[in-house]
Design brief:
Elements (H helix, E strand, L loop, with lengths): L1 H16 L3 H32 L8
Length: 60
């Protein structure tokens, strides 16, 4: 998920360099949204591990 955040951030920077400010803003908003989802899922995983004493296995 962090790869998606980095990808959209790079796309936002490139779009801003070429003058596509609307597109750059959209890419930045998408990157922020995915980053927030990542943080929420990360904290949920930490709470799950703390409450159950087990590690959660990520889906492969």
């Amino acid at each position: 998920m962090l790869r998606w955040v980095i990808t959209f951030f790079i796309l936002a920077v490139v779009a801003a360099l070429f003058g596509f400010t609307g597109l750059a803003g959209t890419f930045a908003d998408i990157a922020k949204f995915i980053a927030v989802v990542f943080v929420v899922l990360f904290i949920a995983g930490l709470v799950y591990s703390a409450l159950t004493g087990r590690r959660s296995s990520p889906p492969m």
